[in-house]
Amino acid sequence: MQNAYLKIEQSSPLQGVAELTGAKNAVLVTIASLLLTSGKSVLRNVPYSADVLQMIALLEQLGAQVIFSPENHLLEVDTTHVNKWHVSAEIMKKMRASILVMGPLLARFGYADIALPGGCVLGTRPIDYHLNSFRKMGVEVAQDGDFLHGRASQLCAQKIVLAYPSVGATENIMMASVLTKGVTRIVNAALEPEVLDLIEVLKKMGAHIEIAPPATIVIEGVQEVHPIEHTILSDRLEAGSLLIAAAATGGSISIPQAPADALEVFLLKLEEMGHHITVGEHEVGITLHATKNPHAVSFKTSPYPGFPTDLQAPMMVLQCLAEGTSIIEETVFENRLVHVRELEKMGAQIVVHNNTATITGVEALYGAQVIASDIRAACALAIAGMAAKGTTIMTGVQHWKRGYESLEKKLALLGAHIWLHDDEDEMDMTPLNERSISKQIRA
Ligand code: UD1
User: For a FRET experiment, which of 21, 89, 193, 323 has its CA 20 to 30 Å from that of 50?
Assistant: First the structure.
């Protein structure tokens, strides 16, 4: 029996100005990258989300000293005393992004003992690109049940060709390579804004990294890297979700920090629906005025700069309420249409065939009891609840809390009728004040 849930009532049109938090997909890898250094680093604009707390717990398990001041979004990480390379299954299973410590641990110690990662269930989500690339660089990888043991007396620079531009594999190989003598090339690398931000982070540490067309990252190994200060970039996916929430309720909002240049195809599709979009100077800042008569649009998800898979589920809510038939082809993940079943409970008309969803617009959605199966599905269902007649109760809120910092409060400030009812058994999300986060983590 789950006691934690989001309660959502049909909301009046969202209005106002929203601020963004730091990007989940940038902060997790940035924290992991600090394992390459020895000393104290400072990160700013760090979101207070359950995944960030998990990554902090992971680094503490390895010997790092961490002070998190969530009210200031300030994170201090001292990696001087990191002296372990064994990550428990308990932590690894909660978050797929924990695989991102493997590259830094191999680079710093030549060892990494980690359990197979967990996280959102989006198909099989293998880690073969990570492991095969490490093997090519000279790492012996052995599997013992659910545990992986990586060993490398010396990493060797190589040309690594990725069959698909995997974000996590690109990041992991880059981090493994910065201390590897010689030149490593990652061909068909992911170039998401969060990957580019990691390149900036590693360069600040003293790494030598260049991007060479087409989609190749070139890393020339250095002997050592040093601690940094860095501000996490604004969350483009949170921006996209807020814009969708405004569109779904027929509202008008502005997001001054929103990186429009990181959301081009997504914004194009909102405009094709009929929503009015204005972009600020230098591509920063987005304002949306919703149309009252949205049209159907179709898209396929693809690696950056295509339509982001992380906005596919929220966008489907708009298509459910648009006039006509929309088609989504999910090409990035093999099982990322689980939210369809839940939207159908709310009155949506969707037919799924393999990884393609055909959505026929309906007059209205209706409140229902729904279950979130992953972070972005949670976001989609919350938005559907705001647009739907009646009351929606969404369980699976651990996914909501993994990906967003108090998004329900941000939405409520814009006029959404949404409340988080928390559960004593879940992670305590009450703000901390200048104390080590470790005291707040429940094993
Ligand atoms: C990251 C993001 C996630 C986003 C995804 C795609 C983080 C913390 N998460 O996830 O929010 O949805 O990028 O933009 O940054 N694959 C393999 N073998 C591998 C690795 C990946 O087959 O070794 C496949 C995956 O199953 C998937 C595709 O490649 O089908 C893309 O995955 P990937 O880009 O690696 O996603 P993540 O890094 O896990």
Answer: 193
